[in-house]
Amino acid sequence: MSAPSDHPTVPSDDPMFIIGWREWVGLPELGVAHVKAKIDTGARSSSIHAFDVETYVEDDVERVRFSIHPVQNRDDIFVNADVPILERRHVRSSNGEVSERIVIRTPLAILQRQVLVDLTLANRDAMGFRMLVGREAIRRRFLVDPAASFLAGRRPHRKKKKS
């Protein structure tokens, strides 16, 4: 008979990884090395703070250009992205308001794994996190330990230049 585990096991073809309620994640195809994300099992979809959002059609494919502030309270740091639009979806926000959002599909890097996720583009400027990872992105891939943070590691800090 085996000893009880600290964490329950879930049957799956792939191993389940444990993550905290907030993690540093990457969006490699968007050029974002690190963004602090809230892992929110109460939210169905994932969302990223986007601004200067512009849609256009190229070769019969609807695309979107937008910018991301990956670091909270640092509007001087931004990343530009240009990707195909997956769809438009009606999303209910935490305050109950329903709005139509653009959805893109992109790899999410966390714990040395990359998984494809659908991301809605939203104005999260007033929110505590630039990114929200919802339950559809983590379903059957990760288990969330609500008492833990940054189990994937802390964001590497840049060394300050000495004057």
TrEMBL record:
InterPro entries: Asp_endopeptidase, Peptidase_aspartic_dom_sf. Pfam families: Zn_protease. SUPFAM superfamilies: Acid proteases. Residues 18-154 form the Retropepsin-like aspartic endopeptidase domain. It comes from the Bacteria. This is Retropepsin-like aspartic endopeptidase domain-containing protein.
